[in-house]
Amino acid sequence: MASMLENTIRKTVTQGVNALHRFNRDRMAAPQRPNPYLSGPNRPLQREFTLAHPVVRGHIPPQLDGCYARIGPNPLVKVNPANHHWFLGDGMVHGVRLQGGQALWYRNRWIRSTQVSQALGEPPKPGPRHGSDTVNTNVMSIAGKAWALVEAGAWPVQLDEVLDTVAHDPFGGSLKGAFSAHPHLDTATGALHAICYDAADPNRLHHVVVGADGRVQREEPIAVVHGPSVHDCMITEHYVIVLDLPVTFSMARYLAGYGFPYGWNTQHRARVGLLGKNAPGRDIVWCDVDPCYVFHPSNAFENADGSVTLDVVAHPTMFDDSRIGPSAAGSKFERWRIDPKARRVERQVIDAQPQEFPRPDERFIGKPYRHAWTVQLKDDGSGEFVPDRCLIHHDLKDGGREVHDFGPGRQVSEFVFTPRHVQATEGDGWLIGYVVDTAQLTSELIILDTQQFGGEPVAVVEIPHAIPLGFHGNWMPAV
Q1: Whole-angstrom distance, CA of residue 282 vs CA of residue 58
Q2: Which helix (H) or strand (E) holds 5?
Q3: Residue 85 in contact with residue 137, Cβ under 8 Å?
Q4: Chain centroid to CA 282: how far?
Q5: CA distance 94 to 136
Q6: Residue 8 has what pLDDT?
Q7: Burial class (CB in 10 A: 0-12, 13-18, 19+), 358
Q8: Which residue did the predictor score with more confidence, 380 or 473?
Q9: Cα 448 from Cα 470, distance rounded (Å)
Q10: What is the Cα–Cα distance from 226 to 369, expressed in whole angstroms?
């Protein structure tokens, strides 16, 4: 009886909190300036395009047989610019299919949430839902199929070979809780490892493992407090690395009407956890780190002395002032030494230039590695998260640093690496990503040869509209 009463009280309180959130959300006054994630080159596209054989400058390497796809928010249903956060909004995937030295097509497609299907006058896509069904953060190949991913609750969405939504699918019913936008492949086993959080469950994270067959093998709980936002993780040979940092759920922001109710929390302990890949969550070893926030690690590996090296882009704070997007002020590319004996993390700056979206040669995830590529962020004093015109190559063995400058008025998105061939040495291959011309409001898919990083692109695929600033993507080889 007590349990039934407690559940009734919780349900009533939750309904009241949600009602107050909606009331304040809908009455929030218009902003004094345009929301940067709804205007200029980030203005949401209003339609889906299918462009056959887009114009190509240069020569697409014939070895590239697959699709480069990237996803991000692109609101179809009208939103309030006063409280619209960049991380929210209907997902839209943008892809270019390459084969035989040609660009066969460019397509952009909304991920069919229930809301999007209704707005387009379509029947809802099949499959179960888990809270929100808006998916907008990453797109990648899992067990030979394309999947759109998001963190904090909503289940993955399966896509077909032309990027249309097939179904909302918790990996054939094997996933019980939330997933992540950033699972990482263990090349030794073929399994994907992720650290997942659910906005509705502030006291637990889960270590989720998806096997090579595309089914969940493990959902191991890890106790936390305050409801931390854990965007990404990393793995080594024996560990999954958990980043429990001071961005947590803010009831005050939620009650005020903000859709992304996470903020900087000075009362939350900053720590990094080492959890054995098969160990129970209670065995995690927590190591203190100076307060900061990390969206994206680059890579990690174990050292002979028992410590673990972790390379990250670290932000001094996050979501401490802005309610609509991240701050870029002061982000640095850093190398962390995690000492499980002293339970402490030592931080060393590799590059103090503001930057984000680190990507390595992912065949070397969890192993000692040499190459990483990041996107330079504007360092104009505005504090806003705005990609600049440069892609940075870090040589982590020799300490070298190269820059590819795409020219004035360009915004660079995350670039991904694909090897020249199966046996290619680390970092020998191509970098692929989208670049936007903010003056012409057009885009290009650009392919760079890593052996001529600062030189002219190998190939440029022209796209006659601006692809809004998005999050993450991957090269998905044809199967």
Answers
A1: 54
A2: helix 2-27
A3: no
A4: 27
A5: 11
A6: 44
A7: buried
A8: 473
A9: 20
A10: 35
Phi, psi angle pair for 7, to nearest 5°: -65, -40
How far is residue 374 from each of residues 42, 242, 392, 444, measured CA to CA in Å?
Answer: 21, 22, 5, 18
C-beta separation of 91 from 115 below 8 A: no
The CA distances from residue 358 to 144, 236, 320, 464, 475, in Å, are: 24, 17, 23, 27, 15
In degrees and rounded to multiples of 5, residue 15 shows phi and psi of -60, -40
Tokens for 392, please give them. 């940075």
Stretch 212-240: mean pLDDT:
98
Residue-level pLDDT at 3:
59
Residue 320: both structure tokens together:
């401490």
List helix spans (H) across 297-425. none
Distance from C-alpha of 194 to C-alpha of 274, rounded to nearest angstrom: 13
Between 32-46, 211-225, 381-395, 456-470, the lowest mean confidence (pLDDT) is in 381-395
Q: Which helix (H) or strand (E) holds 72?
A: strand 66-73
Q: What is the pLDDT of residues 249-296, one digit of tens each?
A: 999 998 988 889 999 999 999 999 999 999 999 999 999 999 999 999
Backbone Cα Rg of the chain: 22
Q: What sign does the dihedral 374-376-382-386 (CA atoms) show?
A: negative
CA angle 436, 439, 445 (to 5 degrees): 20
Q: Of the candidates 132, 94, 131, 126, which has an alpha carbon nearest to the alpha carbon of residue 110?
A: 94
Please report which helix (H) or strand (E) contains residue 349, including its range. Answer: strand 344-351
Question: Which among 137, 180, 138 has a CA at the least distance from the CA of 155?
Answer: 180
CA dist 259 and 278 (Å) reads 35
DSSP percent split of the chain into helix, strand, coil, nearest 5: 10, 40, 50
Q: Where are the alpha helices (DSSP H) in 185-340?
A: 251-256
- Tokens read off for 69: 């796809």
Beta strands in 215-343 (DSSP E): 216-223, 234-235, 239-244, 247-249, 262-264, 271-276, 285-288, 293-302, 308-315, 332-339
What phi and psi values does residue 133 have, to the nearest 5 degrees? -120, 25
